[in-house]
Amino acid sequence: MISDQLNHFKEKGVTEAKKLLWIFAYLWILLGLFAVHKSLVLNEPNLFYHQGFAIINAFVLAKVMFVAEAFSVADHLKRKPLIYPIVYKSAVFALILVSFHVLEDILTGLWRHRSIAESIDAVRADSLQLIVFGLIIFVVLMPFFALKEIARDVGADKLFEQFFLRRNRYVPLQS
User: Fold this and answer.
1) Does some domain include residue 160?
2) Are residues 114 and 163 in the same domain?
């Protein structure tokens, strides 16, 4: 009985770790591309300087998203047509990620011996950049949540199989 419980916890842990890994990978690709873009725009000599920050941010934001999903944040539209939960979750999670981005900027300012007021002023000065970042995150999260919602309907295993193993024509079950 105890070994069954341990096996159950182990399976649950592996499943949850895989979910976190997929969220992390998606965010790392996104934030890594933002970092490369920033390096190109600022004409920095080392193109991959910001990649360390992208990895750390992706992990922290993946944990934030993972915990928010565990608490069923923005889950009350799951019975509506797909477009509603996809757009709603993308908007809510974009706001969450932008909020943590602002918090990170404030903490970075404190790390660099700026006051909280100076850090907030710096964030306010970059408000247009922040709005654009939020809009990009909103749009980029749509395919992420679209796949999650479709996986909920057809089954995560079936979706994984369609993408990575073999492609079969999906035939919905007759009710």
Assistant:
1) yes
2) yes
Same-domain check for residues 81 and 150: yes
**Cα–Cα separations (whole angstroms), residue 127 to 9, 12, 88:** 44, 41, 23
Q: Are residues 125 and 162 in the same domain?
A: yes
Give the pTM. 0.75
Residues 97-136 have pLDDT tens digits of 888 878 877 888 888 888 888 877 777 777 788 888 889 8
Asked which of 59, 80, 103 is the last residue of a domain, the reply is 59
DSSP string, the chain: -HHHHHHHHHHHHHHHHHHHHHHHHHHHHHHHHHHHHHHHHTT-S-TTTTHHHHHHHHHHHHHHHHHHHHTTTT-TTTTS-THHHHHHHHHHHHHHHHHHHHHHHHHHHHHTT--HHHHHHHHHHTHHHHHHHHHHHHHHHHHHHHHHHHHHHH-HHHHHIIIII------PPP-
> Does 173 fall in a domain?
no
